[in-house]
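Entry:
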Amino acid sequence: MVVCASFACLAQVSFASQQYAQDSAPYLWMIACVLVAIPSGLILLARNSYPQAVFWTACLLVVALPYDSLIALMALTSLLARRQGTKVTLRSVLAAATTTIWSQVRDALHPAEASIWHAIFSKPYTGVRYGNTMVMLVDERTIIASAVVVALIAVAIATLAGLHIRSRALARVAEAKAQSANEQVSRLRTTLDNQQLADAIAAEAHDTLAHSLSLLALNASALQAESRKLKAEAEQLGNANVAGMAGKIAGTTEDIRRQASGALDEAHSVIDMLRHPEDARLQLAANDAEASLTRDSLLQLAANDAEASLTRDSLLQLIGDARAANMRIDTWIDVQQLGQLDESIGVIAYHVVQEGLTNVRRHAPGAPVSLQVDANPPQGVHVHVSNPTTPQSPSHMADTRKGAGLPGLAKRIQQAGGTCQYGFDQHNVFHLDVRLPWVG
């Protein structure tokens, strides 16, 4: 580009100098123009950093000096390729068209011996260089019209070339942005999948681990009460050995109850960390600890977490364990064709009963419980658990910790297409009412 631009400027100024005598002032001006034309193409080297400045400088050179417009057209292409905007495009194209037409028409108006356009339309082997007069094949109007048409065509080619380069650059940028967006979507999808998996594992851990630990604590409390009763009876009978052993058993069961309660709190902390990994990272960072939960480890944890489904045996087992822990339960059980119940719905229904009983043991120990379970294909699964509470304790029944207890269970039920309602009536009776479809 540098060489071609400089050569075109040199060619036109060389033809233009033929009309002046060598000892005249205009001829000295032409010599100065030749000296400037040689390095003029070097301004195109700055087109990447300063495309507008290069373009306007090139136009100024072509208008002020007898140069060809090729350097301005090259600068126009670079400008359009690197700058966007309708105003910039229209202004630069109009300036380039004016400059190019001026350059070509100026050359066409020169005398025949000093014009490139006259040389193009002259009869072969005529002119001063051949020792005769130049003979033109067309008239002056045709030469000028040809110069204008060629100038406009050259501007159109330069404009289209610049716009094409710009469109290719924009396409590459758009492709890079689309690829970056796709990668971002992929990362977000992976994060969402991992979070959904963590939520599912947290729900399972809460439903199974919390149930078992609360049952263990309740049984320990019952055993402690029996041990103390045995100790009191032994002391009344004067049997010191039995009284001492009963006292040790009571102390041991108190330790078991306390440890089970602490383990239950720790389990809830771990569950909250699973549900809220960002908060967990901040918490662990504050303790200078690093935690990493991979998908494989979460899947392994889920595999180790046995899921129980709603069957007659599992339902009777839950009720039997609760009654063995001294819970008073009135039941209404009407289940049909449980073998055909959707497996995922059966798992959720089992955990509803489990969570309902666990909730009573934790927040209303000793209160009588009413349990109703209806299951059949036309109506789906209906579970209702209710228990009275004291006016001082209702606020503890609905565990409002984000993502834990009943709120976490309600989320699973809603995802399965069911409904979950829980709360207190005017008599301070807590109700948990869940309806699930037969097929998830």
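The CA atoms of residues 201 and 303 lie 10 Å apart.
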